[in-house]
Write a structure and sequence with these properties.
This protein has two domains: about 260 residues, HUPs (Rossmann fold); about 150 residues, Anticodon-binding domain of a subclass of class I aminoacyl-tRNA synthetases (Four Helix Bundle (Hemerythrin (Met), subunit A)). Helices cover about 45% and strands about 15% of the residues. α1 links the parallel β3 and β4. α2 packs across α3, α4 packs across α8 and α12 packs antiparallel against α13.
Length: about 500
């Protein structure tokens, strides 16, 4: 079986054969949350996407060290070098200690990740736990002549760095165009150039989060922590760095510059970026009122939602779009995903009960090859799911007696389904999703079989299914849009 994985590397702008630096070990770093507010669906999609990456790498037999940081200091308003630290601001508003805010939102984030059935990272470092290391890397960058101090703050010199290495190599931006698009410094800004970014900021008297440094009391810049923690735990050169598309510039661009200035390497071999969410074609934002929190999606407690959806349905829905593609939410799309999820899981459950024959009309190896081909093509989960639906149709045909399956094929398919549905896609087994989901899924399969019988004018089979369900107090009603069912009260 071909298990050669190809990744789309943002740095090169093309798909590349994945070759780990030190196989079978793989270093995977993903930018984690800034813990000052509720985790939103865009965050969730990013972490679910990289959970898929982590799961499939492990499925292929790699020994993955998955590092995901927690930003608990240094993230200023509007991702700029001025303003108030977002965590300090939240602490001031809620009249709590900053670390209380950090703890509260970190626990909430972990709970959301648990509900979505994501695997925990192997290491989850925090910015505040690595202040010493951040000061050390600043000193290295200063020794290289690529940073300067002004009034207790340290700034990265982008123009000087760009004389040696290209700043903008990840995002494709050119320094000249970036300069023309920035404001002229007004004389009050400490930076030599508008493109320069903070490595360390001097703390004002009112700033709550502050640490001692060679330059006085202050706090690290936001971009610095990922350079420090990724290289500390994965080495000065490591395999994969992931994050949302919104982090490509300037955050990841600054990481590349910091790493090269401090270590002389570009650090990351494969850059992966997940795309954004929209709602009915419009970018989600609080100002537009179409930003939906996970809990609102689960309960349906939002003005734009008709009802709530199970976390596994939401995860399945997200997997139906490639991680690099924009994903559009809507009530109709979620409802379709729910039906598809129930239908798929119910059909796979039927696989366990299929009667075995001496011969088989089903080629398990062909499905295995298709599953691997999809996932080896840059983790193409929507193609994998389409092949799973093809398998579900085959299973239903076997349940109707139109195809044969022997014991060897049945075992092979059961193992294949468990590997790709549960281990790779991370979808919980149907028993864990609740009895109502199981009932709905099984009834969808039964009504599909009955609908095909009616289409073939096989009235005896159609009536037999209806009568047997009626004996179980399940009433089937035929309408112009198909059959519906309900339990007789």
């Amino acid at each position: 079986m071909d298990t050669q994985l190809h990744l789309y590397n943002t740095l090169s702008g093309s798909k590349e054969k994945f070759e780990p630096l030190n196989p079978p070990f793989v270093g995977l770093y993903v930018c984690g949350p800034t813990v000052y507010s509720d985790v939103h669906l865009g965050n969730c999609r990013t972490f679910i996407s990289f959970d898929l990456v982590n799961r499939y790498l492990r499925h292929l037999g790699y020994k993955v060290r998955y590092v995901r940081n927690i930003t608990d200091a240094g993230h200023l308003e509007n991702d700029a070098d001025e303003g108030e630290d977002k965590i300090s601001k939240r602490a001031r508003i809620e009249q709590l200690e900053p670390m209380e805010i950090v703890q509260q939102y970190t626990l909430d984030f972990h709970e959301k990740m648990r509900v979505f059935n994501t695997l925990a990272p192997d290491i989850e470092p925090t910015a505040t736990g690595h202040i010493v290391e951040q000061i050390d890397i600043i000193q290295k960058i200063m020794e290289a002549g690529l940073a300067y101090e002004v009034n207790g703050s340290i700034y990265f010199d982008v123009l000087k760095y760009n004389e040696q290495e290209r700043y903008g190599m990840l995002s494709g931006r050119k320094v000249e165009e970036l300069i023309s698009g920035t404001r002229t410094l007004d004389g009050q800004d400490e930076k030599r150039n508008a493109l320069d970014f903070a490595l360390w900021k001097k703390a004002s008297p009112s700033h709550i989060m502050r640490w001692n440094s060679p330059w006085g009391k202050g706090f690290p810049g936001w971009h610095l922590e990922c350079s420090v923690m990724s290289t500390k735990y994965l080495g000065e050169t490591f395999d994969i760095h992931g994050g949302g598309m919104d982090l490509k510039f300037p955050h990841h661009e600054c990481e590349i510059a910091q790493n090269h200035a401090a270590h002389g390497t570009h650090a990351v071999r494969y850059w992966l970026h997940g795309n954004m969410l929209t709602f009915e074609g419009t970018k989600m934002s609080k100002s537009l009122g179409n930003s939906i929190l996970p809990d609102e999606l689960f309960t349906g407690d939002h003005k734009l939602l008709n009802r709530g959806f199970h976390p596994m349905v939401v995860r399945f829905f997200m997997m139906q779009a490639h991680y690099r593609s924009t994903l559009d939410f809507s009530n109709e799309a979620l409802e379709a995903a729910e039906k598809g999820y129930q239908r798929l899981m119910a059909s796979l459950k039927i696989l366990e009960t299929l009667p075995e024959t001496e011969q088989s009309d089903i080629d398990a190896g062909a499905y295995e090859a298709k599953f691997y081909a999809a996932m080896n093509d840059d983790f193409n989960s929507p193609i994998l799911i389409s092949h799973l639906f093809d398998l579900a149709k085959t299973i239903n045909s076997a349940a109707e007696g139109r195809l044969k399956i022997d014991a060897t094929t049945k075992v092979a398919l059961l193992e294949l389904v468990e590997s790709f549905v549960i281990d790779v896609l991370g979808l919980q087994a149907i028993e864990e999703s609740g009895d109502s989901d199981l009932a709905n899924g099984l009834m969808n399969v039964i009504l599909d079989v009955r609908a095909r019988a009616r289409a073939n004018k096989d009235w005896s089979t159609s009536d037999a299914i209806r009568d047997q369900l009626a004996a179980l107090d399940i009433v089937v009603k035929d309408g112009k849009d198909g059959a519906t069912w309900e339990v007789k009260k």
